[in-house]
Every structure is written in C-alpha cells, then in structure tokens.
Write a structure and sequence with these properties.
The complex is a heterodimer of chains A (209) and B (377).
Chain A: H1 3-6, E1 14-15, H2 20-30, E2 34-39, E3 42-48, H3 49-56, H4 87-97, E4 101-106, E5 109-115, H5 116-127, E6 134-140, H6 146-156, E7 161-168, E8 174-180, H7 185-194, E9 198-201
Parallel strand pairs in A: 1-2
Antiparallel strand pairs in A: 2-3, 4-5, 6-8, 6-9, 7-8
Chain B: E1 2-5, H1 24-35, H2 50-54, H3 59-69, H4 93-112, E2 118-121, H5 142-152, E3 157-161, H6 168-173, E4 180-187, E5 211-216, H7 222-240, E6 244-248, H8 266-283, E7 288-291, H9 301-312, H10 323-333, H11 354-373
Parallel strand pairs in B: 1-2, 2-7, 3-4, 3-6, 4-5, 6-7
Classes of the chains: A alpha+beta (209), B alpha/beta (377).
C-alpha cells in the first residue's frame, strides 16, 4: 500500500502572509489540524492548530499577536513524503519524528497530505472485513515453505483466502491471521490441526460431537 | 396459536451428503412431532415468483442461479459466491430456493392479515444471501423478500436475528431503509463468519439508528446472553413500534453446534422464545413471522426447533423423547441421541473465563446503548 493510495488530495493551504487569526479560522471552518504554508506556489512550511494555540497562548512569556503572519510560527524545513513511498515508511517517519502529518510532494509540487488518521484508515483497510469471511488464527514455524504449506492445504479444499496478516510474536514463531470465505472454519481448523498446524482460533470444543 | 408453513419440496434445498445445511434437520423435527403425537396441519405456500426474488437480488445473479440449476455451466460462477464449498451447485437449485422464498413470503402475508398471531415457516431464514451473491449456504434471501413485501404494503417491520452468525444480508439490503429495523445477536465477527455485525454498524441515511448489532464473545452462556437481550430488545422494539416482527430463529448458538462457539442450551432457547412472544404482544401487535435458519448439530437443532413449535402451539413440553424416535435416528445417524427434549442441567463443565466474557459483553452492550441513545430520544 502506497502513500498515493491513502493520501488526501483535496488540500486547504495558506500563504505565508496569512494572519494567525485567519489561519486558525480556516482550520476551524474546515475541521482540520494541519495547514501547508505556501509561497510562490512552493511548499515552505507547515502550521498546526497546536502551533497556533501555543504561539498565541497567554501562558507564554511573549505571545504572538493574532495579526502576525504564519511565517513567524510555521515549522520549517518540512519533512515530506513521496506518493510512491510505502505507507509503513510514512508511519515510521511520523512515529520517530512525532509528526502528526506529512505533506506529499510529487516532482517538487504539493500533491497531497497524509495524517495519523489516514494511517488509521489504512490499518482498517489492511485488517478489515470487506467480504463475508471467517477467521483462522495460526502459529507458524519460521521455516521456508510453512506459509505455502498452509495456503496449499486451503487451496486444495477450494476455499478462497480473502486476506492474510502475519506478524512476529516475539519468539521465533510467526502468527498468521487469515480471513477465508467460508462458514466452515471449524472443520477446516480441525483438519489443519490433524496435519500438524498449531491452530489458535477456532479452538477445539471437547464437548462437541 | 400458531400457523405452520411447510411443504415437502423444501427437502430439495440440499447441497449434498456432507453439507451442514441438511434437510435431515427438518425431517427429524417433523418426525419427532409425529412421534410425540402432536398433530400439525401445515399450510403449503406457492413457490415465489421471479419478480419477488428480483425485489432483493440483481437480475444477473438470479439468472446465474437459474442457469446453474438447469445444469448449464456459467463462467465465473464463483463471482456470485456459487460453486464454492459453502454453496455448491446442485440441479434444481433455483427452484429449491424459490420454494423456501415462497414459504416465507406466504407466511409473511398470513402473519400480516387477520387476527394477530404467530406464523412459523418450517424452513427459510437464509439471512446471508446478498444483492448479487450467494453466501453462507444462502442462495435467495427469503427474509428480505418477505420484509420488502411487508414494507411495500405500508408496514413497519422489525427483524430479530438470533442465529449465531450476523444477519449481514438482511442488514445490508435494508441499511438505508427507515421502514425496517434490524436487530442481530451473534458471536462477534472478530471470531466468526461473516465478520461483520459490529456495534458501529448503525445504518445509513434514513435508516440510521435502526440497524442494531449485539456481537457477543465466544463461549457466552445463557445468563450473559439473556442479559444483553433484555437490555437491548425491549427498548429497541418499544422505540420503533413495528407492525410486525420477523424472527430468524437459527439454532446454531447452541453449545453443540459444530460451526460456532456460543453456549446456549435448550433452556436458553425456551426462555428466548417466551420473551420474544411477550415482547411482540407488547410492541408489535402480537404479529410474528418466524423462520428457521442455521443450526448444524443434528443432536441439538431438531430438539430446539421442536421446542419452538410446541411453545408456539402452547403445548406442554414433554420431558423425555419417544424411544422409537431416539432409536430410529440414533441408528440412522450412527450417533447416540439424547433421550430428553431439554439438555442435561448443567449441560457442560464450567467455562473458565465466564466472568471476563460476561464483563466484555456488558461493556459492548453499554457502548451500543450509548451510541443508540441519540436516536432513541
């Protein structure tokens, strides 16, 4: 999944000479927290609602007056992303730098913006249910061919796999969560278990026959 | 009293010998009623017309089911959810499904007219079928066809789904409809097919606040289930005040069910049926259309549904089952069938995480009610 798949393309921007009070109103009116700041069609900075509130707060020793330009308050230089960056790279940059957003530059021109909320949407898309499906949760050994053995087993039963999510649990094992297009995950899990797979969900029911 | 709807053609809805959605389940119920000496005279309803089915399904999908049913091959039938292990192709499948739709539709018309009463369709309940595809053993959505006909006649309809799986097909087909309230109790989609049915699915547009989902933790038992039911259903029905209640009475939340993980017993089902009858009297003019649904344990489902029939007929519940029936079916299924209508008490060993499960269910219900409160002013 790439940045261009999740970025917001409808942008609200301000010019460097916009007043702090006006920039704040623009954010309020549009329900946004981040404003790219432009000068001569180029991205020159970014300003957040938090920047504005902190800069103008009566609690600071020398608050900025509301009719100051955003230029004095904006963050620069700006960390940016490329439309072809994978989303995980953007997530890592934002996490490590503690940024709430990344403007996206395509060939030097501002093309979009990615915020933490867009990354949450990406997570929902990666883990979500978009087709009727049941869940299989399996612990795999970290050997070549283990995942292939699993998917081959499922494909031989002609069951469609809608999604696979894998992650390391801390030890040597790999956790695989599959969404498969079938009501009959229990019989499938039982068959997998009989073939040596460690099934975490659905568990066997001792009382059923 | 109750009117029963049934006809022998229902047995043709058969995906094959090893498929869980087996017509044997209904055969066992009818056989048991007979051996119990309960006289039933079910009404036979006509097969649904093509136009009826087209009220909730796309023409391409219906044409595909028909062609496959005639034995023609259809390129990419799997696009429509057909020819999969869940929904295998079989000869006459479109007709078989249309008989079931006709039964639920006929039952709906009978429940809506005349004196208030219960009408029980001994079939149907195919709640997973979607606008343009089959899903989860369901070809045509009989419930949605019936609900559509009822709302077109001007009725407001509440749909209550106690099948262990989310009633996703019915919910999706009426997601923006302000004449239809859907309430589904199911094992959480985080664990069970079809994966949907979260508390945030509340409907859209005019239907906002009218689609209600109660996803329950795996291994939820009677007390926690009924607690959730009592917190949600009376308020939901009291708010909407439908002209008629449609109940999908799947029996697969029973602890014996081979495809799911809830822990209801026959006693829970009896308690549920009595609650639903009472609530319909208070909030739905006493009109209920019941259908069957999922329920894949041959040891449990026939007893659960027989209990439903007897409860609706206001007949006393026998303690033990006729020995001839138990022997005949034990032999035929090569399984030892229980000799009593109700499950043993207690039916199973204590569930280790019981308190945590109940606590999580309570939290989910509270969050659901918090989001619904703004629509229930």
């Amino acid at each position: 999944m790439l940045i261009q798949d999740i970025m917001q393309r409808d942008l609200v921007t301000v010019n460097v000479d916009v007043r702090l009070a006006d920039a704040y109103k623009i954010m309020q009116d549009n329900g946004i927290r981040h404003l790219p700041v432009m000068s001569g069609g180029e991205l020159v900075g970014i300003v957040t609602d938090r920047d504005l509130r902190l800069a103008t707060s009566a609690l600071t020793s020398t608050p900025f007056p509301p009719d100051c330009d955003v230029e004095g308050v904006m963050n620069q230089p700006v960390q940016t992303a490329d439309p072809l960056d994978p989303v995980e790279t953007a997530a890592r940059t934002m996490r490590e730098s503690k940024f709430g957003c990344l403007p996206v530059l395509d060939n030097g021109k501002l093309a979009g913006i990615v915020t933490g909320i867009d990354l949450l949407d990406a997570l929902i898309r990666l883990t979500g249910v978009d087709k009727p499906s049941g869940r299989l949760d399996i612990r795999l050994q970290d050997h070549p061919g283990e995942l292939a053995r699993l998917t081959h087993f499922i494909s031989e039963r002609h069951v469609n796999i809608h999604s696979i999510l894998t992650y390391r649990e801390g030890g040597e094992d790999l956790r695989a969560v599959l969404r498969i297009g079938s009501m009959e995950t229990r019989p499938l899990a039982q068959a997998l278990s009989e073939h040596g797979f460690k099934i975490l969900w659905p568990p066997a029911k001792p009382w059923s026959n | 009293m109750v009117e029963l709807i049934y006809r022998p053609e229902y047995a043709s809805y058969d995906f094959g010998r090893d498929h869980p959605f087996s017509p044997i389940r209904l055969e066992m119920v009818l056989d048991l009623l007979h051996d119990l000496g309960v006289h039933v005279e079910p009404t036979a309803c006509p097969k649904a017309e093509r136009e009826d089915i087209l009220s909730v399904h796309s023409p391409e999908y219906v044409a595909c089911v028909e062609a496959l049913g005639r034995g023609e091959s259809v390129e990419d039938a799997e696009r429509y959810g057909l020819g999969t292990p869940d929904n295998p192709i079989f000869p006459g499948m479109a007709d078989a499904a249309a008989w079931l739709v006709g039964g639920t539709l006929g039952a709906a018309r009978r429940a809506a007219e005349g004196e208030p009463r219960n009408v029980l369709h001994l079939g149907g309940g195919l709640h997973h079928a979607q606008w343009s595809n089959a899903s989860g053993f369901c070809l045509f959505n009989d419930l949605a066809v019936a609900i559509r006909a009822l709302t077109e006649s001007g009725l407001y309809v509440s749909y209550l789904d106690i099948d262990v799986h989310h009633g996703d097909g019915v919910q999706a087909l009426f997601y923006e409809d302000d004449h239809v309230q859907t309430i589904s109790f199911h094992e959480s989609g985080q664990y069970l097919f079809p994966g949907t049915g979260g508390i945030h699915e509340l409907g859209q547009g005019m239907g906002r606040g009218l689609k209600i989902n109660v996803p329950l933790e795996p291994f939820t038992e009677e007390e926690s289930y009924l607690d959730a039911f009592d917190r949600v259903v009376p308020r939901a029905l009291g708010h909407f005040k439908p002209g008629l209640l449609v109940v999908q009475a799947g029996a697969d939340a029973h602890y014996e069910d081979p495809l799911a993980d809830l822990m209801l017993t026959t006693r829970t089902y009896e308690a549920l049926y009595r609650r639903i009858i009472k609530l319909a009297r208070e909030h739905a003019g006493g009109r209920i259309l019941w259908t069957l649904g999922g329920g894949y344990s041959l040891l449990a489902s026939p007893r659960v549904w027989t209990l439903l029939v007897l409860t609706l007929m206001e007949q006393p519940l026998p303690e033990s089952l006729p020995a001839v029936w138990v022997e005949r079916w034990s032999e035929r299924l090569r399984k030892s069938l229980p000799g009593t209508l109700h499950d043993a008490n207690p039916a199973f060993d204590p569930i280790p995480r019981r308190e945590e499960i109940s606590r999580r269910n309570k939290t989910v219900v509270r969050r659901l009610l918090d989001s619904l409160s703004r629509y229930w002013l």
